[in-house]
């Protein structure tokens, strides 16, 4: 495999590159006026210091101008160390300005000089800077390759600081790529180095990173134990905000395993810190989390109280996105309580904020919820009006999934109103979205809605085509073992349909047929819910019989083993 280094530069001519960097396209224009032989107007050190001051004050254009002058002076003096260091500073400015390609190009030029000077420590640091630039540009493969170069050199130097600096972002990259075992390995190595050097802040940071990864792996007990370790260190370090964050995450872990008492205790500890610090961000997160726990456990009054507190903290902190998300939560809880007027008011306020924030996707989602409220109140005309508004908003956001959801709602309303042409148009458009996105369940649900309309309106051929499946039993599959309450599914239709009937043949014997259901309308999906405890264990047969109008019939079987 070729290394990043071999693709980037030919180090056989590294020194020549270092001496002739003025010819590169990035820098040719700024130096044309000065020239490499002109007497420097100011010392490199002074210009570099001037650039540093601008950089600290986030005046990046001025910092860049000073560094470029410093670079010209360094090149005129043929000072390779100063030239390489200034290139590194210019790269840092480009990174801060999110001009990552330029940053990489500049760092590579610094790298050539450090390599030629045999300055391995700065070589490793520069590889790490290249890795960070690629990481910021979301070029993960190139970033990992650059950090691998930095890590190899750092290990040769036996420099724990450089090793740690290279491994930590590698852990972050692996985590982002959902390569969790590799992320844990990287974080653990950094933690071991921090233990060796006694860096408790870094130890706490790596424990937090490990706990976060365990949580993503749904190893909640392990995650909580690791957060607890981090919490102990954060208390020693008097890092109060860090303690609040750890407590919030521990509470979420407890909530995920339904240990609501422990979750509430952790959230209350975080709340105490938020109140002590008067930190609205901590208060918001804690109240929001408490509201969710109470909502999930059906304690709606407590959930509303917590969400209202979160709303107050969000408004005090001036975070409109937090305010909007809490209004959505309030709307959801009011809706669960069938308080549709209050729910609609909350969703409307959220929608208005999402619109101000230019978040069309969430604005459309809020409108969808408002329309559903009107639907629950049987205010069909208002619901359709809102759904049409939601559809326009969702199309603006180019969020296909939300567009599909809204189209399904519109289709359902028109179908209920027996406005079948409008319903078919909406469902067919939604179907194309689910087919393109690979949402098989939603595709099937939409096909069934279309099938129902085609069947109701006597469009037999269209119904058969949209079903896109075989007539007969689809669940359970032949040879399945079933127990308890089991939903029998299938497709019962025919051009000469008269009725369908479902029977259970005990021991497979048609003489011991038990009728389960008989219906005079075609059906697709759920046919019957079988309580297997009413029948003996053993091998039996399910029989779906579709009877034609002329009395003839076709039969479909599935052998099942009842095991209670």
Topology:
Blueprint (H helix, E strand, L loop, with lengths): L3 H5 L5 H6 L5 H8 L11 H13 L3 H17 L3 H17 L3 H17 L3 H17 L3 H17 L3 H17 L3 H18 L2 H17 L3 H17 L3 H17 L3 H18 L2 H17 L3 H18 L2 H17 L3 H17 L3 H17 L3 H18 L2 H17 L3 H18 L2 H17 L3 H8 L4 E4 L4 E3 L2 E8 L4 E9 L7 E7 L3 E9 L6 E11 L4 E10 L2
Parallel strand pairs: 2-8
Antiparallel strand pairs: 1-3, 3-6, 4-5, 4-7, 7-8
Helix pairs in contact: 4-5, 4-6, 5-6, 6-7, 6-8, 7-8, 8-9, 8-10, 9-10, 10-11, 11-12, 12-13, 13-14, 14-15, 14-16, 15-16, 16-17, 16-18, 17-18, 18-19, 19-20, 20-21, 20-22, 21-22, 22-23, 23-24, 24-25
List keywords for this structure.
564 residues, alpha+beta, 25 helices, 11% strand, 8 strands, 5-stranded mixed beta sheet, elongated
- Average pLDDT, rounded to a whole number, is 91
Question: Could you give a short account of the major beta sheet?
Answer: 5 strands, mixed
Oligomer: single chain
* Helix proportion: 55-70%
N- to C-terminal separation? 58 Å
Output the number of helix runs: 25
Q: Low-confidence parts, pLDDT < 50 over ≥5 residues? A: 1-39
Structural class designation? alpha+beta
Number of strands: 8
The Cα radius of gyration reads 33 Å
What do you see in this structure?
With 564 residues, this protein is α+β, with helices and mostly antiparallel strands. It is built from 25 helices and eight strands. It has helices spanning 4-8, 14-19, 25-32, 44-56, 60-76, 80-96, 100-116, 120-136, 140-156, 160-176, 180-197, 200-216, 220-236, 240-256, 260-277, 280-296, 300-317, 320-336, 340-356, 360-376, 380-397, 400-416, 420-437, 440-456, 460-467; strands at residues 472-475, 480-482, 485-492, 497-505, 513-519, 523-531, 538-548, 553-562. The protein has a five-stranded mixed sheet with strand order 2-8-7-4-5, with no helix packed on it. Helix 13 (220-236) runs antiparallel to helix 14 (240-256) and helix 22 (400-416) packs antiparallel against helix 23. The longest helix has 18 residues, at 180-197. The protein is elongated. The two termini are 58 Å apart.
């Amino acid at each position: 495999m070729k290394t990043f280094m071999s693709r980037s530069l030919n180090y056989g001519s590294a020194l020549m590159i270092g001496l002739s960097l003025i010819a590169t396209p990035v820098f040719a224009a700024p130096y044309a006026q000065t020239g490499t032989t002109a007497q420097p107007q100011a010392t490199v050190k002074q210009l570099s210091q001037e650039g540093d001051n601008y950089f600290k004050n986030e005046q990046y254009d001025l910092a860049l101008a000073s560094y470029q002058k410093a670079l010209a002076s360094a090149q005129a003096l043929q000072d390779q160390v100063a030239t390489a260091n200034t290139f590194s500073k210019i790269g840092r400015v480009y990174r801060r300005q999110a001009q990552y390609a330029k940053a990489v190009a500049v760092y590579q030029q610094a790298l050539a000089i450090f390599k030629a000077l045999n300055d391995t420590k700065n070589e490793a640091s520069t590889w790490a800077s290249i890795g960070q630039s690629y990481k910021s540009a979301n070029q993960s493969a190139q970033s990992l390759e650059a950090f691998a170069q930095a890590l190899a050199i750092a290990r040769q130097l036996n420099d724990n600081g450089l090793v740690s600096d290279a491994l930590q972002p590698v852990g972050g990259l692996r985590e982002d790529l959902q390569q969790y075992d590799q992320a844990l390995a990287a974080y653990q190595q950094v933690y071991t180095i921090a233990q060796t050097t006694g860096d408790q802040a870094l130890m706490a940071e790596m424990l937090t990173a490990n706990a976060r990864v365990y949580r993503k792996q749904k190893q909640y007990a392990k995650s909580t134990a690791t957060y607890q370790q981090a919490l102990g260190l954060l208390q020693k370090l008097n890092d109060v905000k860090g303690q609040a964050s750890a407590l919030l995450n521990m509470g979420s872990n407890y909530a995920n395993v339904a240990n609501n008492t422990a979750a509430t205790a952790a959230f209350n500890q975080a709340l105490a810190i938020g109140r002590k610090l008067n930190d609205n961000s901590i208060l918001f997160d804690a109240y929001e989390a408490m509201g969710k726990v109470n909502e999930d456990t059906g304690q709606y009054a407590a959930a509303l109280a917590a969400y209202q507190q979160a709303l107050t903290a969000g408004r005090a902190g001036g975070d409109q996105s937090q305010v909007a998300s809490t209004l959505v939560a309030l709307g959801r809880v009011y809706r669960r309580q069938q308080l549709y007027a209050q729910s609609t008011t909350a969703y409307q306020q959220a929608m208005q904020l999402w619109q101000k924030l230019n978040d069309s996707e969430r604005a459309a989602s809020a409108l969808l919820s408002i329309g559903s409220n009107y639907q629950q109140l049987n205010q069909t005309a208002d619901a359709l009006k809102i759904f049409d508004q939601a559809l326009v908003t969702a199309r603006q956001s180019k969020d296909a999934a939300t567009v599909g959801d809204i189209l399904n709602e519109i289709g359902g309303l028109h179908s209920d109103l027996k406005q079948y042409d409008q319903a078919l148009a909406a469902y067919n458009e939604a179907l194309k979205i689910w087919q393109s996105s690979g949402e098989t369940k939603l595709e099937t649900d939409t096909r069934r809605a279309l099938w129902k309309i085609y069947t109701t309106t006597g469009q037999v051929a269209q119904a058969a085509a949209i079903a896109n499946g075989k007539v007969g039993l689809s669940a359970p599959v032949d040879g399945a073992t079933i127990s308890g309450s089991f939903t029998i599914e299938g497709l019962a239709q025919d051009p000469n349909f008269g009725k369908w009937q479902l029977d259970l043949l005990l021991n497979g014997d048609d003489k011991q047929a038990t009728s389960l259901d008989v219906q005079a309308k075609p059906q697709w999906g759920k046919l019957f819910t079988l309580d297997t405890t009413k029948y003996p264990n053993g091998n039996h047969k399910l029989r779906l019989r579709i009877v034609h109008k002329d009395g003839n019939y076709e039969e479909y079987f599935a052998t099942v083993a009842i095991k209670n």
